[in-house]
Amino acid sequence: MRRLFGVVVVGALAAGMLTSAASGAGLGDVQVSVGSPTGPFPQNKQNEPAVAVDANHPLVLAAGSNDEIDLGPCGTAGATAGSPCPFTAGVGVSGIYFSLDGGKTWTQPTYSGWSARTGTPQVGPIGTLPGYYEAGLVSGGDPALSFGPKPDGSGHFSWANGSRLYYANLVANFRSKPNETFAGAEAIGVSRTDDVAGAAAGVQGAWMAPVIASKQSSSTFSDKVQVWADNAASSPFFGTAYVCYAQFRSNGAHRQGNTPAPLTVLTSHDGGSTWASNQLVPASTAPANKNGQSGFGLSGCTVRSDSHGNTYVFAEQFSSSSTLPTHSAQMMFTSSDGGTHWSKAIPVQQVTDPCFVFDPVEGRCVFDGNAGARDDLSASPSVDIANGAPTGTDATNEIVDAWSDGAGGINHEQTLVSTSTDNGGSWTSPAVASAPGDRTEYSAPAIAPDGTTVYLTYLNFSTPFQTTTASPRLTNGVFRSATVGTGGTLDGFTTLDTGASGDARASSANSLAFEFLGDYVYAAATRTYGVGVWMDSRNAIDCPAIDTYRQSLYSTPLPTPFPPTACPPAFGNTDIYAATTAP
To answer: Do residues 284 and 374 share a domain?
Structure first.
């Protein structure tokens, strides 16, 4: 045995490899963002998907994404020559989708809210979360979803009461005036519904009014959120909901700004109506505390609970080094009293961020080439626990952690997986779980509640890093699974589905200056099937004028192209796709 950051790590599984040959034809995958038009940009743009399964009704799924379906087309609603495709003020982007057959088919409901689909902002149809405009708010994406039990009138949680869907996302004030509805630039909001069938059918009243869950100040920018509801009836904190996120302060938004950004957990014991806040690390800025708990900042969090009510938060503590690739650490925090008190940071894994090239135009590390896809959270922990939901009686409580790692060097990035069967006290040595030859940018696992199967989703690049924008950058989603053997060992991953390839250059930030694929993928599992979701560019068409413009930004910038006349109609048409093994 060896020690990794102070946590016991046992020998590697299968000689360090959890991978076996691909299975061949695959399941076939389906589009989740079914309401998305093929054009124009940016209405055809979706990314950063999340998915959740109702443990008590295992064929019921809900998914979310950053969905720009309601924004004004390029050239309308605040557009300028230098910024022809801006975000339309006041228009929400938290997309919502439902499946009632285990992910084989999906629906995107239409509600009413502040919309600019016609180019003129006004009350109209929306394909995003309802109720925000009416509350003086704007849904801001970074979706996170979880199902838990519904409380009764006395606050008692039981699956017999029904199921409650929690959707956590970023929230802004509707008007440009700061602090109009809440203090700060961006807050964490939570939407809830107890009527999935009604919500899926477009019934606006199926949703409760959104709740501002985060503790805000005038200089707060909340970001990178995840939500979880304790869904194992055996837990003494059954029904408790948790939200983890990074809270940037002093008007800062990212680590380059050297601003306090403490990792924070919100806890609700009343079904999401009220939330208590716990700051897990000091709010010190990076240089003054780079060797402390907060280091250069923690983000990319995951929150989960086991069948005994123990709650776990995982996040990446980013390195403050200027030498690439950076070497960061995954940290774990635990609570045994329903989120009232939390442990200090417990180091779990040392990771190599797949951050080999810092792009001066984008101001971030990029994965696939100049003006490419950012990879900020590639090595952040994505975690799931076999907690035996909905009853908890057959839980193994095995924890599975997956991430994309750059230890193999540029063009050899791989998904690594590590597991723990003793509440995070010891971990298996990280082992490769991606298919041979795949370059994985984002990864996410899900383990069946009874601990029998692990599913894995990742975003793959089949082309190497490009130093110009002249050549295609092919990417696709991959869905794999592994059987859990004796002692929690994984018997080897096989490929269930390989999504169709698309050109990442055909994706775009609204500024048009670089690609945008988002920051994560997601997976969920039941006892009988698993599902994975990813951002997909198969339906997007590259725009040579945009390629040329992006390359010019590294020397002599050209004027910003106008996509409606300079590009194919399907430029920017990224979608959310899913693969499922549902019967």
So the answer is: no
How is residue 92 written in tokens?
Answer: 């929400």
- Per residue in 517-529, pLDDT (tens digit) is 999 999 999 999 9
The set of residues, in sequence order, having a beta carbon less than 8 Å from that of 560 and lying 6+ positions away, is: 81, 82, 83, 84, 512, 549
Give how many domains the chain has, as a whole number: 3
Query: What CA–CA distance (Å, rounded) separates 191 from 204?
Result: 12
On whether both 323 and 298 belong to a single domain, the answer is yes
Q: How distant, in Å, are the alpha carbons of 96, 127, 242, 316, 323 from that of 131?
A: 13, 12, 22, 33, 46
H helix intervals, 166-303: 196-200
Cβ atoms 401, 419 nearer than 8 A: yes
384 and 335, same structural domain? no
Q: 346 with 357, same domain?
A: no
If phi over 0 gives left and psi between -120 and 50 gives alpha, with beta otherwise, what is residue 278?
beta
Q: What is the mean pLDDT of residues 316-322?
A: 87
Q: Which amino acid is at 348?
A: V
Place of tokens 């198969």: 538
The closest of 552, 518, 558 to 33, measured between CA atoms, is 518
- Which bin fits 5, alpha (ψ -120 to 50), beta or left (φ > 0)? left
pLDDT of residue 178: 59
Q: Which one, of 241, 263, 196, 226, lies nearest residue 53 by Cα?
A: 196
Short-list 261, 113, 110, CA closest to 186:
261
Residue in the block written with tokens 């082309």: 463
pLDDT in tens, 478-492: 999 999 999 999 999
Amino acid at 457: T
pLDDT of residue 334 exceeding 90: yes
Mean pLDDT calculated for residue range 458-484: 98
The domain of 293 spans 230-250+259-270+278-350
DSSP per-residue letters across 9-36? EEPPGGGGB-B----SS----EES-TT-
* Structural domain contains residue 419: yes
Taking the C-alpha atoms of residue 168 and residue 92, their distance in angstroms, rounded to an integer, is 14
Q: Decide if 38 contacts 452 (C-beta within 8 A).
A: no
Task: Using a pLDDT cut of 70, give the percent of the chain over it.
Answer: 90
CA distances from 114 to 41, 111, 131, 276, 433 (A): 18, 10, 10, 30, 43
Instruction: Examine the domain organization and report whether 315 and 363 are in the same domain.
Output: no
pTM more than 0.85: yes
SS3 string, 521-578, reads: CEEEECCCCEEEEEEECCCCCCCHHHHHHHHHCCCCCCCCCCHHHHCCCCCCCCEEEE
On average, the pLDDT of the chain sits at 91
Query: Are residues 304 and 209 both part of a single domain?
Result: no
**Together in a domain, 390 and 242:** no
Judge contact between 48 and 66, C-beta under 8 A: yes
